[in-house]
């Protein structure tokens, strides 16, 4: 499976962006998916995750109430809606897909939030 992340960009604090992770090669419904982020000089961290059937979601405390992860398996796409963005949300955002021991990463999309 290949993952293509997109939707990053430069936005002012308080603004919104929607990231997309498009699956190709295999249908997205086979995978639990997470959006991770890595800020300069920091370790990669999980921002949000969603189960195969979208029935379960998980959020980092730092993004709860501001970010929403969702999926449209008919479009083989997982989204991360990011609202009320803060400068500390600046990072490269990566989508990750898991199927048991199998683990796949997209190439990352840069989100920059200016103050």
Describe this structure in words.
This protein is mainly β. It contains no helices and eleven strands. The strands form two sheets. Strands 2, 4, 5, 6, 9, 10 and 11 form a seven-stranded mixed beta sheet that branches. A four-stranded antiparallel beta sheet has the order 1-3-8-7, with no helix packed on it. The mean pLDDT is 95.
Radius of gyration: 13 Å
Largest sheet: 7 strands, mixed
In whole angstroms, the N-to-C terminal distance is 37 Å
Based on CA inertia axes, which overall geometry fits? globular
DSSP summary: helix tally: 0
Can you give the mean pLDDT?
95
The chain-level structural class is: mainly beta
SSE sequence, one letter per element = EEEEEEEEEEE
Helix content: under 10%
Return residue spans where pLDDT drops below 50 for at least 5 consecutive residues. none
Keywords:
single chain; 115 residues; mainly beta; 7-stranded mixed sheet; 4-stranded antiparallel sheet; globular
Secondary structure topology:
Blueprint: E1 2-6, E2 9-12, E3 17-24, E4 32-38, E5 45-50, E6 57-59, E7 67-72, E8 77-82, E9 91-99, E10 102-105, E11 109-114
Parallel strand pairs: 2-11
Antiparallel strand pairs: 1-3, 3-8, 4-5, 4-9, 5-6, 7-8, 9-10, 9-11
Concise overview:
The protein is mainly beta and 115 residues long.
